[in-house]
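Notes on consecutive records. When two proteins share a document, each keeps its own sequence and its own token line. Never mix them. Below: protein one.
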Amino acid sequence: MKNEFKGLIVQGDKKFSIKNAKTDYTGGYNKEKAKDALVNAKIEINHLQEKLYAANSHSVLIIFQAMDAAGKDSAIEHVMSGLNPQGCQVFSFKVPTSEEYEHDFLWRHYKALPERGRIGIHNRSHYENVLVCKVHPEYILSENIPGYSHVKKIDKQFWKQRYDSIRNFEEHLSSNGTVILKFFLNVSKEEQKLRFLERIDDPTKNWKFSSGDIKERALWDDYMKAYEDAINETSTEKNPWHIIPADKKWFARLAISEIIADKLKGLNLKFPVLVEEEAAKLQLSKESLMSE
């Protein structure tokens, strides 16, 4: 699956067409086979996370973006189950607060970045500022940016500057040791409908549904265009986007876990080796314990 799945990475100048991206791809896996592979991937991630924490040289930022009901929460839950909670953190970004609106759009996301040795997961992210805000440009007015007092002034140049800011932000993070993994969970409109109906019919899932979800669904084509633009404008060699077929949740979880494991392996992380003086002290400590 790993080799085949590389074709779903949007990197550098390679252009992404959302219409040509499969949402039901499963890489030849079935649910049971994927379940076993997921267990192995999570064991590997857990081991690699321990090295990441001990080495304290890199941090990892995992970004999840998707339409409603694409499976972000369940994917995060399954990825998290393979991690040590002491070495990771999850942030779910909602509508900005009044304090956050008093700063630039990246401020609240910068505050939520993982420390060295830790894994940070962002459920929605700074990309909301070129996704939901592009579909609803009136939201930009709340940022009170000089020169943009009316929706009509939010033009192509505005969005170009915002994409530039995101690319530069991510380049800065990468240059300073943060590994960025960006996942777009690509669910079909038909599958979203089925999951919405399930939320409505199942009393234990009613809380997941909002009437506003239907209003946003009516803007599906606008959102697909916004996602396509954002992915193409912010995919770089160093910080590509991973397009995850999300109609089958079990496959999406496996794909995400294996990509994370591969990325961590690629860092060639090592447990710290004690200098000679500290190693000698360690031996003395052992001798002291043994003599008790």
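Protein two starts on the next line and is unrelated to protein one.
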Amino acid sequence: MPYTPELAERMRLALSSRSDITEKKMFGGYCWMLNGNMICGVEVGRYMFRVGKDLESLALSRPGATPMDITGKPMRGFIWVDGQHATGAALQQWIALAEQYVGTLPPK
């Protein structure tokens, strides 16, 4: 998936102090993994966060969030967030929300 380099760099900076998160080139863009499980990614103009099904409605109530739909069928537990709504402290809050779910998954 194509991506916006500025958003990828913003995510790298937000995660730079984390030794438990690694970056992985996937689908022509970048994703970040927490203990081997995908936590977030970047596309053109937006981020992807894996929040799980239980936190999905909370995530979708936040500004800039929409369901992740690539094939015409929403991918439950994954959401898109417009890059303009995920800067600074807001980006850290999105990462923390995704970590609430992904942090419960067994390491890969």
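For the record: Residues 1 and 71 are 13 Å apart (CA to CA).
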